[in-house]
Write a structure and sequence with these properties.
One of the early assembly proteins it binds 23S rRNA. One of the proteins that surrounds the polypeptide exit tunnel on the outside of the ribosome. Forms the main docking site for trigger factor binding to the ribosome. It holds the Pfam family Ribosomal_L23. Keywords: Ribonucleoprotein, Ribosomal protein, RNA-binding, rRNA-binding. This is Large ribosomal subunit protein uL23. By secondary structure, the chain is α+β, with helices and mostly antiparallel strands. Helix content is about 30%, strand content about 35%. It has 3 helices and 6 strands, in the order H-E-H-E-H-E-E-E-E. Strand 4 and strand 5 (about 70-75) form a beta hairpin. Helix 1 (about 5-10) crosses helix 3.
Length: about 100
């Protein structure tokens, strides 16, 4: 996978309370990824960018919420997130990503 696609696939970490709990219990990290990214692309991108071994990847689409504004209704965009489980002993430090 070329370097450009790595940065297109991974949009960034998804920081939430649930993501912190999953990271502590299951050695999983949650990333916001491109809507057209596959599990294999996510796995290769994480391994290449963070120099870790990925055990498996689970993806899901988060449907955009319908919001009301002064012009009527609009919807936020649908996006995709990936739960990435690392092999035993592997760790990602987001502060020191090379």
């Amino acid at each position: 996978m070329n370097q450009e696609r790595v940065f297109q696939v991974l949009e960034g970490p998804h920081v939430s309370e649930k993501a912190a709990i999953v990271a502590d219990l299951n050695n999983q990290y949650v990333f916001r990824v491109a809507i057209d990214a596959t599990k294999l692309e996510v796995k290769k991108a994480v391994e290449q960018l963070f120099k870790v071994k990925v055990e498996n990847v689970q993806t899901l689409k988060v449907k955009g919420k319908v919001k009301r504004n002064r012009y009527g209704f609009s919807s936020r965009p649908t996006w995709k997130k990936a739960y990435v489980r690392l092999e035993q002993g592997q760790d990602i430090d987001f502060a020191v990503a090379e």
